[in-house]
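Appendix B, example 12.
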Amino acid sequence: MKIVSLLPSATEIISRLGLEKNLVGVSHECDFPESVVLLPKLTSSSINTELSSSNIHKSVMEVMKRAVSVYDLDLELLTSLKPDFIITQDLCDVCAVSFEQVEQACQEVLDKNIRIISLKPKMLGDIWDDVQNVADQLSVDEKGREFHEEKESRIKALQTRHRDGTAPKVLTIEWIDPIYIGGMWLPEMIAIVGGQACIAESGQPAPVVNREDLEKIEPDVVVIKPCGYKLEQTLKELELLKKQLPDWRKSPRIYLVDGNSYFNRPGPRILDSLEILAYCTYPDRFLDFGECYKKGFIELGSDLQLK
């Protein structure tokens, strides 16, 4: 069985199900587990991801305005790999190769018997269902059930440790300029760890806000995890962050999190993301998570300087 994954979260699902050995090709953004980096890359981006968040946003908007895909799919390489399954997504044309691109490729140049598995998660339940659906279609349904049991156990452990009636207000930021607030599954995650989500609604796209909008709320915790950004890239935009965030009367705890690895990939590491979020929300109660994931986040002072 030969599998192609055109989505980082799908690659992580495949690996979690014990099928990494069956992967024959991945997207250019697939980087976990590290061993998949050596596999053939089937996609490329027309956007320079080393630009500032503002310039990346402008570039993406310009590409979308021209009705051109942000991503290119190497059809020649895809044809040569002769996959049995292609796993892609049907949620966000800015996040990965679109479902239409893959479907068109199968109709025009690939074997029409190739099975396409398309993921479209909006809520946490969708993410868990996607893992089991992929497991079922790839005939490793027991591995999917094992993940379900692990998920249930880890979430129950989180909820047991924070039950005391408090609900800190948590603001998650997934893009810096313009400011996008974490939507889709993020509000659910905040509720699971015992917090109260600011602005965003479960299952809805990330809302765009401005500084004036943020001035109207008083968050207790701010988690900044730009989609696709590693910590070092986010650190380069600290001065911009200072301009974007208001001077709240009560200074919240502010964390920068590796947005490339956590929160934004709807796959198995959402469980790790929940544990990071639990620490950010209740650091005194989840010191073990703070230690476990210390390489994945940084706490800033009220002046947005490194502590």
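The mean pLDDT is 90. The radius of gyration is 20 Å.
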